[in-house]
Amino acid sequence: MLQIHQAYFGAVNGTSHGQLASSLGDKNLRSFLAGFTDRPGVPPAGYTLQPYLAATSFENYYLICRTWPDVAVERQGMVFTHVLMLPIQQLAEAPALGPVLDLLLNAPPSLAERPTTLNPFTLSASDSKLPESASEVPASWLVITKHLVDSSELTPVYAFSDAVHFQALLEALWHGLPVSLRARLSWGIRFTPPGSRDVTPLLVYVPAELEVKWRGKGVIQLDTDEMKTPELPIDQLLFGNEQGSNFRDFVAAIEVGPQSFEALKRCQRAFQQYKNLLTATADVGELLALVRTLRQLQPDPGKAIDIKRQSIKALTEALLTDGATEAMALRAVPMESFQTGAEQLGKAVGVVIERAVTAANSDPTLQGNLLQYLAEANPAIIESWWHEAAATAFTQTLSAGSEAAAKVIWLGLAGNPNVRAYVLETVPDTAAWEQVLSQTVPASLSTVTADVVTTFSVRRNWWDLFAAAVGAAYAPAEAVRKQVKAENGLHLSTSTRVSKLAKKVADSDLVELAVELRSKQLQELAGDACGRNPKLLALIDASQQSWRAIWSVSLSYTKSLTAGLSKPKETIDVFLTEVSTGRANDTQILELIAASTFANVLHLPERSNLWDKLPTRLQSKFIVATLDELVEEILANSWEGDIEPVLVKRAQSIEFIGKFLREKRNDPAAVLSVNTLLQNLTDAYLKDYINNLISINGIVAVQLGQLVAVQGWNLSARSILEKARYNTDFLPALNECAGMFGFIDKLIHSKLFGHQVTKADAWSAFEETMAHLYEEGPDKDNIWKRAGGDVTKLTNAQSRRAQWTAAIGLLRYGGGGKKISAESLIRAALDDYKNNSNLQALAGLQHLFKS
Fold it and tell me: What's the CA gap between 521 and 367, in Å, rounded?
């Protein structure tokens, strides 16, 4: 049983509009109704106000009233209103509006009959006679419902009509409206178009007589001339069409009480989509829309379970058939409203993603969008159920590895930083993935992407991928530079990646890179290039190790030390300077230098430091070449520097002296000049040289004699003496070293020495010779006795020499024995020393031994 309160509003004390009587003592309601029930504006001149209906909601009541002009009071413009106050929570107990409106007065009571107290009405649902179902309704009604439903906000709908037709529309709408929406249906009358701030009911009745004042204001003409069959579910629902019951049942099934016409429209959309689902005519887009609408209409997972289940199942199947775009769109659809929606749709999303990643004919737009969604971790943007399902599927798909999947990774790497970071974190850390990424590098890779990939490659030690990335994004020379620098810490002797990249580099650029990066591998490659084209060595700087390495490798091809060098002598000197400091030791280059005229390093400033830095097996070649040049400069009297011990040692060697003396066999001045600085002559060598010398000029002879005298070389002095006996050229030399000869020599060769020999000289020489030959005295070998001497005459002096002095003294003065003489003693000694020159010379001076 529905209790309906009532109230009268009109002229209080005949003046101001207010409450006259009420069955409900609610001050807030009373205050509100005082304004609501008053006339809405001043009717235009010439218009006679007719009774009109109005309705609205306030707090817990739905208010329906009828207003008349109050002619019973003296004051003009006053109105009388009868108000019905229905509890909003009990509107379902008023299925028909007609019986409620019948409770309103048909006319205002006279002043005398207007009560000061009122009692509420009671209305039973059985008292309500429901409108009959109609197959057709006025076309204008359908226009009005369209405006109500299509309006995004509660925008008023204005209709020209008379009171009867307007009430008929209201009664039809009331019956068809869901109970939850009835309280939202407000209506009233307006005489002139409202201002922007005017409060206007949802349905506005505009008296037909005032049409001229509303021209151009979009007012609908409410008439019954044209009838139409409601086709939309909402129209069928609102106007009691039998087919509307299906829609009503659907709304009941999803357990929704629409709170607005917009919500009712969503219900209609869901109903139509659900009908298509049931008839298998819904495409995947419609099914997705249905799921979205159901979530909005009924967020409670415990309600509309069956319809939700059917919808999720149908959408899942449709996604697997052809729903890639819709699978992506699900990222923004929460699944909390569906009991198993996340699980079922998650599996379908996973399948769609696996297909999208591995498809032979890929869709870059779809793949790009997928990566964007995967990289987005904000649950406010991407639903967590979707992200988890998609990420799991993506990761599992990548684990299998394929070129198609690799291309998706490259697509992601070209995206924004978030996407790049995501795909790099997701790529499996396997050798197979490094290779597939390396093999699928885009030809138009940007340097920005390449830098990201190379940084990633370094972290994973994926050097093949590093090479593929820089090779695709950078110029060949720069690609090699980056690869070499990156691999520097690997300490590889050779990198196949560097070799591959280097093949695309111009030879001149390759040489520059090798010099700059100091890479042994690049130096070898650059050396090969220089070997093929020696002109590339034109800019060589031998002070740099890189250049030396390149040069050394090139020589393996050219075998020519100076090939390609624009300034060979300068380059080689710089190189040898580096060797002298210990910074260079390139054997290949040194071998070729040693075999060339450049082995002469006489004028190399760092020559003195070079010798012990040279390989032992090559040192002698440099020494020989340098010594030869030194000798030439000495002979040219142009040498002024110091001479290292290694050169002197070589100059004193048998090989050098023998060769040099042979070459200068007739040039004693050269021999003596060289010896002055090198001190390379010995007594034995000089003796032989003098013996073979044919002639010598006076000045040189003097120098020779002086050298022999200073050095005390007896052998050479003897050779000079012998040469002087037959060649007067040597007399100046003999004179210079005469002091080296003893008395006997001078006695024997008195003519050469310019000496007049006396008997005393002869006897003195005789004594010296015998004492030398027979050091043990006159008894040795019975020499005295064999010469006819009397051994009893000999004395036993303390020394053997004294014995000879005494014996020669006896012989000189006839006391040595009857048979001994100087002649017999010399003859006996010659028997022992047949070739002794002194004895032979004494034999020639026998006339001096005679008294």
Answer: 41
CB-neighbour burial class of residue 143 (10 A; exposed 0-12, middle 13-18, buried 19+): middle
The position carrying tokens 């009480």 is 257
Domain boundary among 213, 233, 253: 233
Positive/negative CA dihedral, 737, 739, 745, 746: positive
**Does residue 195 carry a pLDDT above 80?**
no
C-alpha torsion 344→347→351→357, nearest 10: 130
Can you list the pairs that 554-559 forms with residues at least 24 positions away whose Cβ atoms lie under 8 Å?
Answer: 554/527, 554/528, 554/530, 555/531, 555/588, 555/589, 555/592, 556/527, 556/531, 556/588, 557/528, 557/530, 557/531, 557/532, 558/531, 558/534, 559/592
Q: Would you say 134 and 239 are in contact if contact means Cβ atoms under 8 Å apart?
A: yes
Q: What is the 3-state secondary structure (H, E, C) of 168-223?
A: HHHHHHHHHCCHHHHCCCCEEECCCCCCCCCCCCCEEEEEHHHHHHHCCCCCEECC
End-to-end distance of the chain based on CA atoms, in angstroms?
Answer: 198
Across residues 545-568, what is the average pLDDT?
A: 95
Q: HEC string of 755-789?
A: CCCCHHHHHHHHHHHHHHHCCCCCCHHHHHHHCCC
What residues pair up with 189 in beta bridges, in sequence order?
205
Q: The whole model's pTM is what?
A: 0.66
- Buried b / exposed e over 800-822, threshold 16 CB at 10 Å, is beebbebbbebbbeeebbeebbb
Element (H, E) at 79: strand 79-87
Q: What pLDDT, on the 0 to 100 scale, is given for residue 152?
A: 65
* pLDDT band at residue 370 using 50, 70 and 90 as cut-offs: very high
Cβ contact 731:761 at 8 Å: no
| Nearest CA-CA partner of 576 in 536, 538, 630, 614 | 614
* Angstrom distance (rounded) from CA 504 to CA 568: 31
Chain segment 136-194, per-residue pLDDT in tens: 999 999 999 999 888 766 788 999 988 899 999 999 999 889 999 999 999 999 998 88
- Cα(192)–Cα(203) distance, integer angstroms: 15
Are 149 and 166 a contacting pair, CB within 8 Å?
Answer: no
- 719 falls within a domain: no
Closest CA to 77 of 41, 121, 116, 115: 41
C-alpha span between 20 and 488 (Å, rounded): 101
Q: Domain for residue 831, yes or no?
A: yes
Helix axes 364-375, 403-413, angle to 10 degrees: 60
Q: By percentage, how much of the chain surpasses pLDDT 90?
A: 68
b/e map 274-307, b = 16+ CB within 10 Å? bebbeeeebebebbbbbbbbbbebbeebeebbeb
| Pick from 201, 180, 320: nearest CA to 257 | 180
Q: Is the dihedral of CA 610, 612, 616, 619 positive or negative?
A: positive
Summarised one tens digit per residue, pLDDT across range 427-462 is: 999 999 999 999 999 999 999 999 999 999 999 999
Number of other residues whose CB lies within 10 A of the CB of residue 259: 13
Asked if the structure places residue 365 within a domain, the reply is no
Residue 7 included in any domain: yes
What's the number of domains the chain is made of?
2
529: its two tokens:
């290039």
| Greatest distance between any 2 Cα atoms in the chain | 219
- Of 180, 212, 233, the domain-final residue: 233
Angle between helices 403-413 and 431-439 (to 10 degrees): 70
What range defines the domain where residue 842 resides? 756-848
Q: What pLDDT digit, counting tens, does each position of 716-740 carry?
A: 999 999 999 899 999 999 999 988 8
CA distance 821 to 827: 10
The Cβ of residue 844 has, within 10 Å, a number of other Cβ atoms equal to 11
Instruction: Look at residue 87 and give its three-state secondary structure.
Output: strand
- Over residues 100-106, the mean pLDDT reads 95
d(CA 554, CA 369): 55
d(CA 81, CA 104): 9
